[in-house]
Each structure stands twice: as C-alpha cells, then as structure tokens.
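Apologies for my clumsy wording, but can you show me some protein sequence, whichever is easiest, together with the matching structure tokens, please?
=====
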Amino acid sequence: MTRDEAIAMINASLPVLGDSQVDAIAEMVQSMAESTAPLHLTAEDLAGIERSKEDFKHGRTLSSEEYEAEMDAFMERLSAKHAVTS
C-alpha cells in the first residue's frame, strides 16, 4: 500500500468512527509523530527495500503458514543431517 493509498483509506474510514475513536487515532498519530526518529538508511538498506517491493509486486511472498511449513521442513532436514553425522 502506498502512502497516498493509506491516507485515503484512513480518510474514508473516519466518518464512520465515533468521536472517542477519532480522538484515540489523533492521539496515536500525534504520539508517533513526536517519538519517531528519522531513519538513516544505508544504500544497502534501500536496495533491500526495493527488492522486497519487487518481490511483493511479483507475488514472491509466503503466507505465515507457508513460511512456517517451509521452516519446519528445513529444521527437520537439519535435524536429520545432524543425527546422521553424530
């Protein structure tokens, strides 16, 4: 989601929220704005962000369940390998 899309989604949602919910959101945003330090990203960090954007754009992502299944299989392979060499 782009920044503009996020802002549009927030703005579209505000009219249906109650006053206390809008107040809570305003306090949260103000707190975040006051406590957020500027990020100092390296060229490597920025390149990684761009790669991840491309991954998302082209569907090269895993759901939590897919990741967990792949990690479980990986750990089983490591355990089996370690058991053989021990």
